[in-house]
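I am going through a labmate's work and have reached the protein record below. What it holds is a sequence and that sequence's fold in token form. Please read both lines and tell me whether the tokens look consistent with the sequence. Do not assume that whoever made the record got everything right. Thanks in advance; the entry in question is below.
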Amino acid sequence: MPENLTVIAHLRAKPGQETALRDALTALVEPTLREPGCIAYDLHVAVDEAGSFHFHEVWRGPDEHAANLQRPHLRAFLAQADDLLDGDIHVNLLRRLAPVT
């Protein structure tokens, strides 16, 4: 059985766009959780860095993650990202090395 794919995405809001970015990211959660192959899609905000948001995602595999990137709700977010984001979205693709105990 193939291992799940974990994705960590880091996004930073432009100054003054923190609330708008938070709202746009929050709107992605529900439709993404309904996607085939989505195991977890958790949105976090940094407690010590205003405007810094992080997704912790778990997908059945890379194909399911890639398919999500083409979904209308994510494409709509990406179309407005330049207005909201300070810099690029930083994405790390990970495989678990040790089981959760």
Remarks:
- Strands lie at 5-12, 38-45, 52-59, 90-94.
- The CA atoms of residues 14 and 84 lie 6 Å apart.
- Residues 1-52 form one domain.
